[in-house]
Amino acid sequence: MATTDLERFSNEEKRNLSLGGHVGFDSLPDQLVSKSVTQGFSFNILCVGETGIGKSTLMNTLFNTTFETEEASHYENTVRLRPRTYDLQESNVQLKLTIVDAVGFGDQINKDESYRPIVDYIDMQFENYLQEELKIRRSLFNYHDTRIHVCLYFITPTGHSLKSLDLVTMKKLDSKVNIIPVIAKADTISKSELHKFKIKIMSELVSNGVQIYQFPTDDEAVAEINSVMNAHLPFAVVGSTEEVKVGNKMVRARQYPWGVVQVENESHCDFVKLREMLIRVNMEDLREQTHTRHYELYRRCKLEEMGFKDTDPDNQPFSLQETYETKRKEFLCELQRKEEEMRQMFVNKVKETESELKEKERELHDKFEHLKRIHQEEKRKVEEKRRELEEEMNAFNRRKVAVETLQCQSLQATSQQPLKKDKDKKNFFSLPSSCSITSGRYVN
Ligand code: GTP
Ligand code: MG
C-alpha cells in the first residue's frame, strides 16, 4: 500500500468524539510535570575559553552561588576537561548541574589540536549513553546523563575579530553541541566597539559556516522573545559575585574608580539576556536539541560505522535483525576464507620446509660420500705404506738373520782357524756400497 493511501486510511480511522462529562486525561501534562519533578533534571554546561577569561566567575554569577573554583595555570601541556557535578534545588525542583571546564585552552604554543580533547570528551559522553541504550537491561530512567547540553564559548574582548583558534574550535564543535558564544569581560570594551565587534563576529561565523545555537522560534509562547534574542547574539557578559551598593540597593557589580558596572543592568551588559535564554526559557530546548539532533547524529554515524542501516541497496526497509543476519553471514564467510588462507599458508610452509630439509639431506649425503671417498683413499694409502714397511721389515729381518748366521759361522770358523780371522772379517764387512754400519746400526 502506498504511503498516501496509508495516510488517507488513518485519517479516515481517526474519530473525534465529544465527551459527555469530565474523564480526566486532561491531567496528563500535570502527571508528566509531577513525574519530571520527582525524577529531577540534569543539565550539563561546557565552558570553553582562554585561561582567566572569566568562566568560573560567570558560572557563579549565573547560578548565584559559589562553585568550587580552582585557578588553572598557564602551563598545561594539553587541554584537559574537568567536570564537576553539583546538586542544586530551586523551589521543589532538583537539578543535577555539571560544569565542565576546558582547562588550559589556548595556552599551548601549538594550538592545532586544542579542539580534539573537547570533541573527544563530548563524543565519550554520547558513547556512554549509546552503550547504556544498547544494553539488554537498560536503566535510562535513573541514568546520570552526562551529555553536554550547551557550550558557552568565551570570546576574548579584543574588539578586533575572532581568532583562528575560535573559528576552528567552534567549527569542530558545532555538529556535536549547542554553541552559545559570549563576549567575556564586556566591561573592558567600549559600547561602540562592542557593537561593531558583535557584527564582525557574526559575519565571521556565517562566512566560515559555523552553526551556533539559535533560540527556537517554533513555539509561539517564546517565539517573539527568542527571535529578538537571536539578534543580540553573541551576548556580551560581565561576571561578578561582589555586591556593591547602588542607591539604596545591593547589586552584583564590578566597581571601578570611574564607576560601577552592574551585572544585572541590561544597559550595562547582556548578562540578564543570557540567563533568561539559557536557564529560564530554553533549558529544555537545549536538552532536547542535544538528544534529538546531536546525539541522534552521533548514534546514526556510529551505527552506520558498525554496518547497520535502515534500507538495503534497493532502498527497501532493512531491519536490524536482517542486518545482523547479513553481518553474521559475512563474518562467517570471512572467517572461513581466513581459515582456508591460513591452512594454505601452513601447507605451503610445510612443503617449503620439507624441500629445504631434503636439499640439506642431499648436501649432507654428498658431503658424507666425499668424506667417505677421502677416508678410503687415506686408508688405501696407509695400507700401502704398511705393506711397504712390512716388506722392509721382512727384508731387514732376513738380512738380520743372514748377518747373525754369518756372525755365528765366522765365530765358529775363528775358533777353528785363528789364522784365517783377518781375511774372514774382511769378507764379512764387505756389504753393498749403498750400505754401511754406523755406531752398530744398519742404515740403508
Ligand atoms: P581559569 O579557570 O583559571 O581558566 O579562569 P576563569 O576563566 O575561570 O576566570 P575567573 O572567573 O577565575 O576570572 C579570572 C579573573 O577575571 C578574576 O580576577 C575575575 O575577577 C576577573 N573577571 C571575571 N569576570 C570578569 C568580567 O566580566 N570583567 C572583568 N573585568 N573581569 C572579570
Ligand atoms: Mg575557572
Could you walk me through the main structural features you see in this protein, from its secondary elements to its overall organization?
α8 packs across α9 and α10 packs antiparallel against α11 (421-428). The protein is built from eleven helices and eleven strands. Residues 433-444 have low confidence and may be disordered. The strands form three sheets. Strands 2-3-1-4-5-6 form a six-stranded mixed beta sheet, with helices on both faces. A three-stranded antiparallel beta sheet has the order 7-8-9, with no helix packed on it. It has 444 residues and is of the alpha/beta class. It has helices spanning 3-13, 28-39, 55-63, 116-134, 164-173, 191-207, 220-230, 271-281, 283-305, 320-416, 421-428; strands at 41-48, 80-90, 93-103, 150-155, 179-183, 235-236, 243-246, 249-256, 259-262, 436-438, 441-443. The radius of gyration is 53 Å and the shape is elongated. A hairpin with a 2-residue loop joins β8 (249-256) and β9 (259-262). Helices cover 51% and strands 15% of the residues. The site of magnesium ion has 4 residues, from α3. Magnesium ion (MG) binds at residues 55-56, 69, 101.
List keywords for this structure.
single chain; 444 residues; alpha/beta; six-stranded mixed sheet; three-stranded antiparallel sheet; 11 helices; elongated; disordered C terminus; binds guanosine-5'-triphosphate; binds magnesium ion
